[in-house]
Amino acid sequence: MIKEKDHEIVFKYTGYRREDFSVCLGCKICASVCTVNDLAQNVNPQELLMKLFVGEKIEDDHPLVRYCTSCYRCTTACPWQIRIPEVVRAVKESLGMESRFEKAFKKSLNIWGRVYEPFVVAMTALDLLKGGYIKYMPKWMGYAGFHLPHKVKRIKPTSAPKGLNPSGEGRS
Amino acid sequence: MMEYGYYPGCSLTGSAKRLDQGVRQLCKKLGHILTEIPDWNCCGALEYGDRNELVSISGENLEKARGMCKEIVVPCPACYKNLKDADPDRSFNILSPLELLSVENLSQIQQKRDLKGQVFFPYYGCLLMRPEGNSIKNRNIMEDVISAFGGEVNGENMKDRCCGGNQLFLNKWATEKLSTLILGKTKGTVVVFCPFCHMAMKTFAEGRKVIYLTDLLLYVMGENNSL
Predict the structure, then answer these.
(1) pLDDT tens digits, residue range B171-192?
(2) For chain A, how many structural domains are there in total?
(3) Which fold has domain B3-100?
(4) Chain A residues touching residue B165 (CB < 8 angstroms)
């Protein structure tokens, strides 16, 4: 559960300020286009924004946090183009709800600087076995192939990260 | 002839190798020169909650490209979105290979085969179309390609729906439901440009072919023997 005081990390992650959500008109157009509702989950992204705005608790296992596909249909429909998938993603990370697959992805990036798929498969092999993915293997043969990992020399960008205000004063 | 920087992205070195090979071959045929950004790193895909971190990761790639090229061809839609997000001033021109195609230059392609009225469903998915400001310029380019070479287009109203590809290894029932919803309302060969969409559609399409647009174009140009 994200408590009120932990909301700050969501704002820090997304670059949005609390007051950025005050513009929400409550039109719920985000809910009407949300892909998660095609899964019969009855979610309302606007409600999540309001919880962040007024400082209410966000429960673990929120269906939007679990199933958001980052399709950005909500953003396109929103009169303010709020990037709700990025807010959801930040909430997911704050709740520590990342799956083993997502952790393996990031671990690979930390080791090599790239996602090395054989490593991710090895790290999640048990989940793939338990999850019944074996039956898809005949269809996935076209994706198989082996190459050795390439270790990337990482650099630090010479300029400040772009795309948001690094001083934390919200998005431009 | 044009020269571009090239950012393949991680999946194009592995599961989407076919797209990488297709893009390189297609660009060569169109007379474009692609030069890979040296030592590029992962763009972070959709796996980071901290936007600062995500933008910084993609910013590294732009730093590596700086001084080398102004125009970067990026086939993977997730990488395309992230590199654009990391460059709000648009100091680079981030291009999907789809943006190298236009109605005008399609007529210059030497057509060796015709699609003979075969039905295709051009499926763009999410990140080539959204968010606003990040999408490709011609949102009908795959339809233009299919029609130009004698194919029939199907599924206009489903072309930008979500297949749930990024949930495939988290909640596969969700991907199955979303993909089959799209497949059920369309017909013909599914033509994609996204590695996520390719895998989701391939996994759940029963008896339907799933191909990249590059496969279709190379077939028309007489390169691939079958679709």
Answers:
(1) 999 999 999 999 999 999 999 9
(2) 2
(3) Rossmann fold (3.40.50)
(4) 69
